[in-house]
Amino acid sequence: MTSIQAHRAADGDPFAAAREAFDDATQWLRADAQGSTHADVERGLRKRGVEMMRRLEQGYLDLRLALERVAVARDGKPDGVEVRERERDLEGLFGEVKVRRHGYKEPKKAARFPMDEALNLPAERYSLPLRQSVAEEARDGSWDRAVERVDATTGGHVPKRQAEQLTVRAAQDLDAFYAEQPAPANDQLSDLALLVMSSDGKGVRMLPQALREATRKEAAAAAAEAVHGDPMAPKKTRRHDKRMAVVTAVWEQERHTRTPDEVIANLRPAHERKAANKGKPAPRPQNKRLSASVEDSLNVGIAKMFDEADRRDPGRDRAAIVLLDGQQSQLTAVNDEARKRGRTIEIILDLIHAIHYLWLAGLVLCRKDEGETERWTIDHLGQLLGCVGVHGVIAAMREAADASGLSKKALKPVEKCISYFTDNAAYMGYFSLISRGMPIATGVIEGACRHLVQDRLGITGARWDLPGAEAILRLRAIRSSGDWDTYWAFHERKERLRNHAAAAWAMASVIGDEYPGWVTRTAVYGLAAGVSVSRVLAEQHFLQLLHINLSRRLIRLGGKAGGGAGGLAEGDPARLHA
Question: What pTM value is reported for the model?
Answer without folding.
Answer: 0.81
